[in-house]
Amino acid sequence: MVEINIFRRSPNAITVEAGHVLFSEGDIGDLMYAVVEGQVTLSRGGHSVEEVGPGGILGELALIDHVNRSATATAAMESKIVPVDKKAFMFLVQEHPTFALMVMNVMAERLRRANEGRTAGQ
Known about the structure:
Blueprint: E1 14-16, E2 21-23, E3 31-37, E4 40-44, E5 47-52, E6 57-58, H1 61-64, E7 72-75, E8 79-85, H2 86-95, H3 97-116
Antiparallel strand pairs: 1-8, 2-7, 3-6, 3-8, 4-5, 4-7
Helix pairs in contact: 2-3
């Protein structure tokens, strides 16, 4: 999985406790999240589909296609995350073209796994 470490020193990082739900499947989304420390579990229909650790992102589709969340994101342990809104996302895409490529790479990896019926780590 691609690591996006541009958020490591972000002043916007927050700490969430284990079990904290960042978003639920079906929610309307207006943020993506970058994991700086810890781990977040993505699940669909109550089944884990991916573990996102440091350098990983989640919820990026909400900033691109404005469709309801396709998964639930739950902190698997105490985690440090950075919420990223549409304005910050667009700034990063414009100012750091490699950021956009990394996000596309993450999305492509997830799509390939979904098409193959695999979960992350298989």
